[in-house]
Amino acid sequence: MDQVAALIRTDDATYCVALPTADTVTRLERKVFEVALGNVEELQGVLPPKDYEALWFSTMLQAERSNEEGGKFFTTMLSSPVGRSLQLWACLTHEHPELTVERVEEIVAESPTDATLAMAVVMVPLWTLWAERLPEQARPAAMKYLAEFEAGLRPLLEQLNTLLPPTSG
């Protein structure tokens, strides 16, 4: 068992959210790519074939070059509405490999407070591990995004600290 960072309790189960590792980042990168291509593939038959092909290749190219550009593709995807679920999915599947992104979205809806707490605990380590994988020239952009994220997270963490019972010792 990996180190548990948080628990999310629903009416029917308790889910262990693992502290992110390098494997978490790899799983997340693969899932982001899979989701992005899935979104594009949903347009097959809707768009004219030439436009669909151009969009598909453009998405592939953006994903491939993303890390060279400071991870803009992944940053954009992870900042999207499904991004929170993707990140939580990556941390949950250490202990719960059967979970789908759709099920994680249901878990978040069933237990929003626990899910928010879990995200607050795992986001910074997850993004730090991801940024460390980027080429040297791309890290400043990713670290800037991480710093902005941490600054936005700080008030939430301070508020949560007021809700927790004091520790003894």
Q: Beta fraction of the residues?
A: 5-15%
**Largest sheet: number of strands, sense, barrel closure:** 2 strands, antiparallel
Helix content: 55-70%
- First and last CA, distance: 28 Å
Number of domains: 1
List the total number of helices: 7
Tally of DSSP β-strands: 2
The run of helices and strands is EEHHHHHHH
* Overall shape: globular
Q: Would you tell me the overall average pLDDT?
A: 81
Strand order of the largest sheet: 1-2
Structural class: mainly alpha
C-alpha Rg (nearest Å):
18 Å
Uncertain parts: none
Written overview of the protein:
The chain is built from seven helices and two strands. The protein has 169 residues and is mainly alpha-helical. It has one domain. The chain has a two-stranded antiparallel sheet. A hairpin with a 4-residue loop joins strand 1 and strand 2. The two termini are 28 Å apart.
